[in-house]
Structure prediction request, 128 residues.
Amino acid sequence: MEVGGDSLMARLLRKTVSVFNSSAHFDIDGSNRRCSVVPSSLPPSLYLNCCVCVLMVALFSLVQVYSSRLRRVICASFYPQREKMRVRFLYNVLLQSNRKCPTSDRKCSSDRLVCNCCQTGDVQYQPT
Prediction:
């Protein structure tokens, strides 16, 4: 028995058949070439479609950030008192975190001071 082909399956079948090699001679042609797919290159339009999809995802992620900021600005224009409360709350949180931390515990992290003792997040919102 002779097994043709260069694929992994053909080699495995060839080794398996060689173990059971008997004195009888059979003329069987076992090739997997009829089943294998002929490789071909992808059309350029498919590459273009993939690039456009990746660019759209990147664009939407950037637009999402700025739309969130715009939403806050629009809400602030309609509800100025609420915006004033929000800014005051954030300012107070910043002041409290700076007051709690001794200067020796502060470490520089990118563009702001971060305190090891203030990472518990125990500051609560108290509207006045």
